[in-house]
Amino acid sequence: MSTPTQSRPRIVDVEEFFADPEFAHATVSPDGTRLAYLAPRHGHLQVWVRGIDEEHADAVCVTHDARRGITDYHWTDDPRWLLYLQDTDGNEDWHLHRVDLTAPDRPAVDLTPLPAGSRVAGVEVLAAFPGQVLVTMNRRPMVFDVFRVEVATGETTLHVEQPSPRRTYLPDREGRPAFLSELTDDGDWEFSAVDGPGRTRLLLRVGGPEHPLGVYPQLVTPDGTGLLLGLYQDGDDLRLVRVDRDTGTQTVVGAVDGQSLDTMGMHSPLLPPVVVESARTHEVIAARFVGDRPRVEVLDPAYAEVFAALEQLSDGVLHSVSSDDAERWWIASFVHDRAPGMTWLHDRVTGESRLLFRSFTHIAPEELAAVTPVRFPARDGLPLHGFLTLPVGVPHEDLPLVLIVHGGPWAHDTWRYDPEAQFLANRGYAVLHVNFRGSTGYGRRHLTAAVGELAGAMHDDLIDAARWAVTEGFADPDRIAIYGGSYGGYAALVGVTVTPDFFAAAVDYVGISDLANFMRTLPAFARPNLVNNWYRYVGDPADPEQEADMLSRSPITMVDRIRTPLLVAQGANDARVVQAESDNIVSSLRARGVPVEYLVADDEGHGFANPENRFRLYRAMEAHFAEHLGGRAG
């Protein structure tokens, strides 16, 4: 245990923690003359553009979406056009929009007017197709094909028709199919070289459950002669491996003993990418690995000097690194527990750097709590890793504890600035994240130990983590809460049904209550790829015996055991966990006269993106925990 070394900070407003960042996601234009980044306007994040030497006061807001913030944008090879992705009220049916940088006040043009239920899943600019972008989308509802879209006109041409939902061609830098990735019926992944139309040659086959969301990354080398894959090979750690196109020979490109590749970048363009590619050669020059703090390994010695210069700019860890095509101008942002979103511009020619922005300037780092990596064993001896955030300015003993459970479950928590953890610590709570079995990033054994263990050993890991905090003296055993979103929401509901007397309060945010219904209501195009995740780890609801087991692990079938004060939050347009998952829990509790607070946002999906909805959620959470755990309230 530790004692405070400074006074207790002010109660920071909910709005300060959960407003959109002041600045975020900066990139430099391919020609090195301009910067683009996200900043608020019209109450939401928009894309802004300014000259490389200009300040924000000189910038032009080039998007004007007054309904929902923009988080993903792309430069093109034409300095006139910029592209961005947007969905409708969180339904995840992403469309690709074009803005004219010479006339930024003109309305954006939707380049992908898709039918309902279809979406853009990828955008790539290739030198082989000037004036065009390759767009992956499911015009055929079940299959994501690749199209060439003429940026200036919107003219769309089918480029690569994928063979089936589970068979995907991987193109080279010329846009030609070079490899075939296939998910077999028994859950193996097969990778083949494409020798011509209809002619493939098997290179390797890898097992399934250790790749629940697929083999990641899958990158064709710039010369087309190799395929870079995230593989375990014969070990426990996920490595970056090159597979030779002619011989199938495997060569380890990036590996750290005892640490795995960090694959969180597959979930969102705002998360740190697993690899960094050269803008000039498109070769992979660095890779990210999981640890107590994330670790970026430089793989190409030619870039060691520039990465060393960038790493000196912060005591955090590199988040994202990008450059112009000539690789003179580099932008580096950093992961940090108390100084989020610090972003620098580095001139590789002069060696000079300047701070572009911090994402949040209204909260001083000294007002925030340090995030400490922790380790402890599960009851069966499996090593568990987590992160503990303790409030500033109070004794670190017998605190009310909030256990935050990440989503996925095939994801992981990491050392970083987490506004939820900082918000709760500011209110006086100890906050514990735990990478329970099934989390990615901690090796094959840790990942696959979750097979068949939903509401079983996966839940035991959470209880063991909370008990560790009690044993260490940090937490009061009578004031422990559980909170999570998506799978974490399911875990919160499991917590108050499987162990109804353990938690003093719970918050379920877009969580699963009925595993069988959840799987049946997933988008149709997602179901062919459930083999190694939900089917392998949980079961197939089409099989009566497996469905019965799934229901036995579903909170909805144990809802009569809930007596813990519960807050439920749901987006009405959630395409992953449909609103019925929350409605059914809430209606059952209310029918029994059990108090439950229920927030539904009509303009949200799988998580709340609009600031006003976030404010509403966290104000409710603040009041909920203050009433039942005794923390501070603003």
TrEMBL record:
Which Gene3D superfamilies does the UniProt record give?
alpha/beta hydrolase, TolB, C-terminal domain
Q: Which PANTHER family match?
A: DIPEPTIDYL PEPTIDASE FAMILY MEMBER 6, SERINE PEPTIDASE S9 FAMILY MEMBER
Q: What is this protein called?
A: S9 family peptidase
- Keyword entries, A-Z: Hydrolase
Domain (Peptidase S9 prolyl oligopeptidase catalytic) ranges: 415-631
Q: Name one Pfam family in it.
A: Peptidase_S9
